[in-house]
Amino acid sequence: MDNSIIFAVGGAVLGLIIGFIVAKMFEKNNASKLVKEAKKNADLIFKEAKSEGERLKKDKILQAKEKFIELKSEHEKVILSRDKKMAEAEKRTRDKESQISNELSKGKKLNESLESKIKDYNHRLDVIEKKQEAIDKLHKNQVQQLEVISSLSAEEAKEQLIESLKGEAKNDAMAFIQSSLEEAKLTVEQESKKIIINTIQRIGTEEAVDNCVSVFNIESDDVKGRIIGREGRNIRAIEAATGVEIIVDDTPEAIILSCFDSVRREIARLSLHKLVTDGRIHPARVEEIVKKTKKQIEQEIIEVGKRTVIDLGIHNLHPELIKMVGRMKYRSSYGQNLLQHSREVAKLCGVMAAELGLNPKLAKRAGLLHDIGKVPDAETDIETPHAILGMQWAEKHGEKKDVCNAIGAHHDEIEMKSLLAPIVQVCDAISGARPGARRQVLDSYIQRLKDMEDIAFGFTGVKKAYAIQAGRELRVIVESEKVDDQKAADLSFSISQKIQTDMTYPGQVKVTVIRETRAVNIAK
Fold first, then answer.
1. Residues in CB range of 512: below 8 A, 6 or more apart
2. DSSP string covering 349-365, please?
3. I need a labelling partner for 226 at 20 to 30 A (CA). Which of 46, 136, 200, 262 fits?
4. Exposed (0-12), middle (13-18) or buried (19+): which is 505, by Cβ within 10 Å?
5. pLDDT tens digits for range 128-160
């Protein structure tokens, strides 16, 4: 039993040993196979890598050759381009050298020609000087002979000749000027009258003189005492706040406001109206009301200016100029309201410019602004004419040169440089010369007529002179023995030119020279 177990165990161990040996042998065979296969695979991979490397090497070599060929061709192109430029530069250099050599040769020839001409000129100049000396001697001899023959010196003969030529030239010039003026009148008088009449008729309005007298009406004379106040403190406060003199006299139900500035008078009038309506009149209340009224008037001035420019179709006007236009409402010129006058001149200018084929909007602008120099300002120079002052303000606020020139030249203070200037001047005269448009002081009117007659008496041969038709015509009677028909025509022209240059007047003045000869006999 024990032996069988031992044999069994030994057999099992022997079997295990044999199995292990057999397994090792199989494993060794498998390992050798794997090693062979690995070597085989490695050889294949190496061969493939070697072939791939050869292929890549060939490709890189081909790419390098292509790149080399490309760079070589580009380099050759650059070299060719440089060679071409160098060849062109060399050609240009050769051309310039040949041109310079040609110019030098031409310059040399010109210098030689100039030198020969200078020699010829000097020779001719010497000949001319010798001839001039001979001519001077001959002229001197002839003058001496003429002095002996005429018994006159050269200076006396020259003076007589100059005087005769001067008189003849003056007569010819007068005749030419007169004929030119007559011809111009025939061609333009009818057309100009047509344009002016059409313009006046289209803008025709009734004129009313604005006296610019501020009178404050009250319900009863009891209000006067309240306005004066205790010991006059209320009226003194009003005068101090407004700058207006208040005159309280025996005039029933009225108080007079006196001040050169119409804006101040209007502020005072409105302030009094508010104070009387409110009933509370004392110095503190006066200052408060006057301050509020000033702001109200300033706003109203701006609104009036805006409405005016809108009504006239004027755009892009500077705010300061709009304010000046509004202030015209409270100004007057010879009794004519300045704003109404400026609006009328603007409309007249627009119509006349349209008739003449000019810009009507620009003409309206110049017509509206032509009298802004009459609007007072804190910095106003009273010695500067209002036309020049208005032109300076217009230039300051960016107006165009034609508009500024028309403003400054409408009273001939400066030279007219555009057609707008005479249009504004004519329209200003039309607006101011209408019957009832303006008041004119009698003394200045009489003085103007007297000055006109004195101008006529300043010419020789004038016997009598009469200014008629309100200064629109000057009748001059001359002495027939001293003035002939030709001199009468010259005298009419000379007097008209003297009046035009020395006097200022509205419209035009007609100068009529009368020359008559009377033969009187008595039959018995």
1. 473, 474, 475, 476, 492
2. HHHHHHHTTS-HHHHHH
3. 262
4. middle
5. 888 888 888 888 887 777 767 766 666 766 676
Task: Please give the average per-residue pLDDT across 297-310, as a whole number.
Answer: 87
Give me the sheet containing 473-478, strands edge to edge. 462-468, 473-478, 510-514
Virtual torsion, Cα 279, 280, 285, 288, nearest 10 deg: -40
Cross-strand pairs, 258: 245
Alpha-carbon distance of 392 to 396, in angstroms, equals 6
- Rounded Cα distance, 73 and 59, in Å: 21
330, 259 contact by CB (below 8 A):
no
Per the structure block, which two tokens stand in for 431? 């607006």
pLDDT (tens digit, 9 = 90+) per residue, 406-447? 888 888 888 888 888 888 888 888 777 655 555 554 567 678
What would the pLDDT profile of 219-253 be if each residue is shown by its tens digit? 776 777 777 777 788 788 888 888 788 777 776 77
The encoded tokens of residue 190 equal 């009818």
Non-local CB neighbours of 265 within 8 Å, separated by 6+ positions: 214, 244, 257, 258, 259
389, 381 in Cβ contact below 8 A? yes
**Cβ count within 10 A of residue 395:** 16
User: CB within 8 A of 212, min separation 6: which ones?
Assistant: 262, 332, 335
Distance CA 227, CA 238 (A): 9
Q: Are 187 and 221 in contact (CB under 8 A)?
A: no
| Residue 12, token pair as written in the block | 């099992």
Would you say 372 and 390 are in contact if contact means Cβ atoms under 8 Å apart?
Answer: yes
| 129 membership: H or E segment, kind and range | helix 2-150
3-state secondary structure of 521: coil
Q: Residue 387's closest CA among 376, 401, 373?
A: 373
Q: Note the pTM of the prediction, 2 decimals.
A: 0.46
Tell how many helices (H) and how many strands (E) occur in the chain.
14, 8
Pick from 398, 372, 394: nearest CA to 385: 372
